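Please decode residue identities from the backbone states below.
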């Protein structure tokens, strides 16, 4: 008997375990109940797959109500999670802000581990679950608290701005956090002409181009975005004449220089919805275009994306398992709680609209 359902559990095995406690048959009642979701997804998910997703979506939504739980899902989650079961979707900043407003006993974080830790920091009294705690991030694993303390010793008095894509231990030795949507604002707002901006060397270099401040960084990188090159963008332009190309600021600066717009995941979604280009390539994680396409008419989405293996550890099977069994609960060492939370709260305060 398997102990846990996660992304590497074969689907048949996971369904067999779940079927012991849940009715996973595609009935008429489930078809009717989930038809508004299917309407949104019918161009993104093959018809033949819906009878497998719909019962899981139905059971997750029922269990959520029963347990007073909410699901926070990052923009990189698959359409069946994003449209099927999420209560709140967004980029890292939006999810962090929403986490402070959640009125539920349980938060299920559909995203990566640092996002679940951020939710726990901001909701210490609530149960925060992540369906697979191995959903990591190459940026978060690139730096330790000891590395940050060594940098502080090397550059005494220089403020440390840490990307939220980091562990609670690293946040705890940080002055203030930032996300890709508020990085420039936070760097401009901290005191001094020099700032340490860690651990993403590319976000730091892309931010450095927009500020007069001197930025010291760390050699971390997102494994999904660092592989894009200026040559890839030139190839995309040649393959798709007239298409707009947009990218995430975790890409190298030469990529950002070559695209039509760069912004956080939500920044890119807003840009597509307001600009409505006839054709667009979203140079980021692949689920992004599926999710935006489901609610944007008249825009052709062309492929130029990579898959984040960490984000893709979360699936409907392990979400249902997580809600059902209360696993895997996210905990943070008591001594890290206050200092790490303070760094995130400072960021939220500094990025709130003025006035
Ligand atoms: P956003 O804050 O833009 O959603 O980015 C998070 C992330 O992990 C991108 O790779
Ligand atoms: Fe981390 Fe990159 Fe995946 Fe975002 S896309 S979670 S930065 S590895």
């Amino acid at each position: 008997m398997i102990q846990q359902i996660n992304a590497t559990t074969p689907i048949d095995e996971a369904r067999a375990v779940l079927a012991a406690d849940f009715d996973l048959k595609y009935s008429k009642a489930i078809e009717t109940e989930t038809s508004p979701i299917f309407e949104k997804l019918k161009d993104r998910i093959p018809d033949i797959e819906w009878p497998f997703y719909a019962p899981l979506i139905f059971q997750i939504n029922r269990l959520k109500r029963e347990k007073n739980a909410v699901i926070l899902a990052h923009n990189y989650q698959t359409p069946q999670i994003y449209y099927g079961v999420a209560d709140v979707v967004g980029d890292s900043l939006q999810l962090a802000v929403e986490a402070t407003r959640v009125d539920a006993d349980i938060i299920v974080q559909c995203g990566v581990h640092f996002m679940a830790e951020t939710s726990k920091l901001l909701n210490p009294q609530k149960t925060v679950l992540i369906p697979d705690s191995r959903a990591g991030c190459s940026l978060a694993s690139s730096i330790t608290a000891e590395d940050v303390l060594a940098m502080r010793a090397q550059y005494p008095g220089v403020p440390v701005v840490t990307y939220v894509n980091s562990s609670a231990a690293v946040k705890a030795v940080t002055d203030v956090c930032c996300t890709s949507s508020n990085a420039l604002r936070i760097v401009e707002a901290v005191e001094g002409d020099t700032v340490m901006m860690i651990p993403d060397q590319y976000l730091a270099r892309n931010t450095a181009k927009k500020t007069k401040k001197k930025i010291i960084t760390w050699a971390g990188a997102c494994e999904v975005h660092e592989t894009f090159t200026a040559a890839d963008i030139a190839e995309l332009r040649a393959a798709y004449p007239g298409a707009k190309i947009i990218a995430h600021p975790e890409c190298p600066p030469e990529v950002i220089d070559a695209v039509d717009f760069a912004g956080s995941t939500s920044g890119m979604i807003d840009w597509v919805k307001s600009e409505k280009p006839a054709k667009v390539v979203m140079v980021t994680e692949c689920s992004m275009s599926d999710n935006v396409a489901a609610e944007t008419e008249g825009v052709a989405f062309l492929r130029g994306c990579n898959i984040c293996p960490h984000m893709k550890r979360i699936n409907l099977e392990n979400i249902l398992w997580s809600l059902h069994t209360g696993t895997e609960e996210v905990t943070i060492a008591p001594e890290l709680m206050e200092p790490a939370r303070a760094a995130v709260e400072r960021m939220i305060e500094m990025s709130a609209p003025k006035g």
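Observation: The domain at 11-135+310-325 is CATH 3.40.50.10800 (Rossmann fold).
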